[in-house]
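Design request, tokens follow.
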């Protein structure tokens, strides 16, 4: 198999979850043949594929998501996706599909999302989407469709709800051009485009339409909006207009035609051309959400005070440097306010009256300070974003009334300290990363009893005692001092970066109440920049009874203690980096038989015996990069029946026969993905250094002579047994077959020569019967009856091969007389003569054979001549013993046999 360096990634955090295959950015030219058939997600984004062939996805029935974005695919064979019966999402954007054929999507009955944007599609077959009966979302944006009738097959789909047609070549979108059998189920439509001049809905084809997006892609142009009947858009609740596509009068006309509008988005409008528009918008009684993205409303009188009905207001990137008092004061029902990425220098004064506000986004502004009055009345606030401002200090009174706050982001400011008496009992996420804080106390976090995630950056951290963290970096969740740690019972995820002076002493837990915090711990990561001496690590792990994920980076100077996981039976993922495993035994992993993921990088591992003995039958993910593995026995991986991902990169492999089994296993196995196996290089021997491991010819290892000797001796034994069997039981049958073949061969030769009959009969006899021939036969047949007989001792041509003389005699005579006795049957040459004569009998279908039996011979002696014997029973044969009393009758019968014309009939009377 070809290995393309694809990597597995888990669909979820669960170590036993299904695996997704990531083959993006690999310069792949065709679908790899080694993709595991049980993969649920396949990412082939940004490769070099030009065509999808039938059978490329054979057997991959479990696939749910397939990403083929940004390739060069110009053609898809019919039925290429027929095996993907459970596929739900297919991404084929940024390719070169100019035509969608009739059976391109055959088999995709469960597909719900299809992206075909940026392909240059010009033609859609009327039956291109006939199999997509479950399709809900289709993006055909940035193609070359020009007529609204091109999308008619899409609108007929029974489940379609979202259709993207952005930046095509439509000059008009008029529903009167659509001929639909029944109204479409479409709910969302994006018809943006530079060529669009008319948007008209004059027929009831979209009774369920709720969302319309219309904008220009690159240029600005006036659009003609024609909706003759407001009832046709009675369900429109969301409208997106961008890039000044309509004049002030045009937008006003549109807004007046919509009676159910609840969400309006205006983007990139030149607001100086729309003075007074905000007042018009605020008069829409159903409007609840207003988005003003990048609308340049600075230095304009902001008249939003009459928008008292709004619950969500988004004014990001609108060049706002001030929101005067009273400009937003009437919005008593506002729940979400987003003014990020503007030029505000202080929290808007009207925020003090937002008693219903739940989400407040002030990111990316120029706020210098927070006052105690800024959030005095926002008691319902749940999320507060203050990222990347210029705040240098936060007093405890700022958040005094925010008892419901769950998220606070103060990252990327200029904070020097953090107040220790801030009380936010429901806060779960706190981010004070990228500030200028150099020292923190545990007391600073005692007011956060519900905290689950804390990002601190790199700070000095001290507790209430001398035991302290010297350095904490990228802390995913809070760390507390030993005396107050019992208050943080929700801690699940902890990442600690230490200096060697600490030795994890700051995590000592000497009291039973302290251990309460670790009972719920599920993920624990310890990192040390220089090797530490974690004497208390085993004690800490013993308190984490439900731990599922453990990572240790550069923690141990020697081997980790063998009993460190005795109290962690639920561990599913373990990672050790830069830890000495050269003397580690299987006892380390025996307490965690349910381990699914194991990573041992830079751990001086030269043998995998300790893993084999650890009985890790549930292991699915194994990473052993940057170790000392030079030889691997392929039987090792039989100990991991569930293994699906194996990474052995950067090991000093030996390219000789000791690795032949492993190399063949890598090439043949279809269950385990060996990541980057095609790039593994040889370290030894010297003459193969830097060559590829998989290019080593393993057949040389198996051809050492033993296999040849085994085959040779086996064949010799079988041949001996077969020869003995044939000689004892099949000798006469084979002899008969051989002579039959010779007769056939020479018969063809004689036919071509058209030999005339020189004799009346050829006499075939054995030398032991020569006296009877001379004494009894010749005087009668030649002397009295005058027949011309051919005798071998008299008429055979000297020097000519015997077999040719026999053939010439038989085919040069009208008849063949066989003088049969027991000696005759045992004679090799007589046997050949009778075989050849009998073949002539079968071949020419003439009565050319006369049998004279000098002795009474039992039928079993004639068994080798079964077919001849069967014919003889129906035709001429003469017995000399039976004619002893009347020899003259015997010779008369011989004369009658020689006189017959030779026509072979089934009813000829035998001369017996």
């Amino acid at each position: 198999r070809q290995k393309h360096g694809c990597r597995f990634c888990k669909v979820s955090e669960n170590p036993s979850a299904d695996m997704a295959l990531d083959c993006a950015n690999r310069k792949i030219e065709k679908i790899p043949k080694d993709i595991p058939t049980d993969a649920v997600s396949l990412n082939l984004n940004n490769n070099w594929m030009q065509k999808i062939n039938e059978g490329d996805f054979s057997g991959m029935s479990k696939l749910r998501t397939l990403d083929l974005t940004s390739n060069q695919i110009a053609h898809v064979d019919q039925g290429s996706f027929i095996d993907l019966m459970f596929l739900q999402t297919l991404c084929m954007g940024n390719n070169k599909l100019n035509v969608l054929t009739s059976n391109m999507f055959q088999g995709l009955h469960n597909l719900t999302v299809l992206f075909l944007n940026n392909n240059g599609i010009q033609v859609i077959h009327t039956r291109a989407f006939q199999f997509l009966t479950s399709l809900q979302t289709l993006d055909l944006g940035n193609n070359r469709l020009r007529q609204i009738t091109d999308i008619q097959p899409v609108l007929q789909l029974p489940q379609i709800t979202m259709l993207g047609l952005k930046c095509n070549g439509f000059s008009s979108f008029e529903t009167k051009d659509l001929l639909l059998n029944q109204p479409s189920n479409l709910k969302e439509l994006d018809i943006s485009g530079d060529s669009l001049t008319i948007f008209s809905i004059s027929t009831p084809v979209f009774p369920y339409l709720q969302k319309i997006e219309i904008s220009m892609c690159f240029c600005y142009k006036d659009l003609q909006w024609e909706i003759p009947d407001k009832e046709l858009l009675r369900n429109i609740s969301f409208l997106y207009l961008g890039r000044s596509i309509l004049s002030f009068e045009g937008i006003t006309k549109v807004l007046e035609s919509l009676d159910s509008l609840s969400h309006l988005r205006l983007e990139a409008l030149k607001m100086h051309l729309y003075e007074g528009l905000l007042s018009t918008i605020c008069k829409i009684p159903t409007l609840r959400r207003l988005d003003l993205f990048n609308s340049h409303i600075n230095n304009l009188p902001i008249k939003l005070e009459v928008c008292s009905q709004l619950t969500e207001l988004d004014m990001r990137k609108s060049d706002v440097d001030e929101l005067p008092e009273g400009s937003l004061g009437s919005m008593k029902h506002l729940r979400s306010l987003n003014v990020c990425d503007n030029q505000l220098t202080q929290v808007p004064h009207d925020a003090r009256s937002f008693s219903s506000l739940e989400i407040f986004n002030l990111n990316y502004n120029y706020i210098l300070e927070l006052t105690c009055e800024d959030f005095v009345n926002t008691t319902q606030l749940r999320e507060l974003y203050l990222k990347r401002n210029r705040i240098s200090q936060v007093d405890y009174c700022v958040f005094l009334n925010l008892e419901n706050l769950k998220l606070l982001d103060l990252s990327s400011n200029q904070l020097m300290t953090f107040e220790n008496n801030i009380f936010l009992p429901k806060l779960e996420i706190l981010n004070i990363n990228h500030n200028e804080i150099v020292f923190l106390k545990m007391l600073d976090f005692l007011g956060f009893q519900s905290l689950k995630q804390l990002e601190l950056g790199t700070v000095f951290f001290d507790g209430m005692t001398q035991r302290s963290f010297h350095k904490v970096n990228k802390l995913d969740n809070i760390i507390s001092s030993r005396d107050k740690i019992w208050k943080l019972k929700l801690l699940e995820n902890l990442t600690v970066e230490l200096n060697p002076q600490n030795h994890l002493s700051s995590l000592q837990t000497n009291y039973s109440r302290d251990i309460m915090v670790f009972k719920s711990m599920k993920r624990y990561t310890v990192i040390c920049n220089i090797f530490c001496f974690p004497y208390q690590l085993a004690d800490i792990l013993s308190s984490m009874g439900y731990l599922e994920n453990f990572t240790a980076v550069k923690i141990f100077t020697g081997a980790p203690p063998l009993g460190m996981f005795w109290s962690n039976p639920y561990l599913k993922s373990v990672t050790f980096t830069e830890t000495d495993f050269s003397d580690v035994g299987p006892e380390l992993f025996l307490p965690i038989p349910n381990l699914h993921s194991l990573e041992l990088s830079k751990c001086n591992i030269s043998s995998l015996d300790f893993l084999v003995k650890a009985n890790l039958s549930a292991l699915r993910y194994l990473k052993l990069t940057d170790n000392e593995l030079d030889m691997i026995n392929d039987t090792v991986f039989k100990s991991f029946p569930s293994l699906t991902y194996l990474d052995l990169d950067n090991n000093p492999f030996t390219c000789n026969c000791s690795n032949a089994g492993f190399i063949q296993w890598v090439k043949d196995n279809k269950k385990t993905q060996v990541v980057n196996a095609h790039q593994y290089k040889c370290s030894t021997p010297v003459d193969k250094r830097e060559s590829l491991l998989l290019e080593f010819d393993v057949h040389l290892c198996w051809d050492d002579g033993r296999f040849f000797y085994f085959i040779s001796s086996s064949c010799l034994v079988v041949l001996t047994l077969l020869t003995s069997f044939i000689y004892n039981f099949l000798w006469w049958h084979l002899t008969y077959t051989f002579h039959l073949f010779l007769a056939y061969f020479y018969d063809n030769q004689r036919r071509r020569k058209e030999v005339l009959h020189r004799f009346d009969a050829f006499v075939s006899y054995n030398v032991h019967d020569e006296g009877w021939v001379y004494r009894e036969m010749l005087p009668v047949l030649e002397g009295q009856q005058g027949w011309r007989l051919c005798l071998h001792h008299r008429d055979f041509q000297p020097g000519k091969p015997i077999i040719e003389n026999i053939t010439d005699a038989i085919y040069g005579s009208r008849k063949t007389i066989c003088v049969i006795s027991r000696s005759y049957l045992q004679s090799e040459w007589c046997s050949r003569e009778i075989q050849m004569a009998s073949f002539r009998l079968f071949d020419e279908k003439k009565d050319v054979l006369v049998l004279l039996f000098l002795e009474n011979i039992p039928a079993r002696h004639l068994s080798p001549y079964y077919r001849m014997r069967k014919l003889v029973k129906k035709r001429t044969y003469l017995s000399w013993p039976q004619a002893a009393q009347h020899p003259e009758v015997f010779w008369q019968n011989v004369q009658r046999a020689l006189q017959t014309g030779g026509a072979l009939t089934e009813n000829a009377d035998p001369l017996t």
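Comment from the thread starter after seeing the answer: thanks! The longest strand covers residues 813-820.
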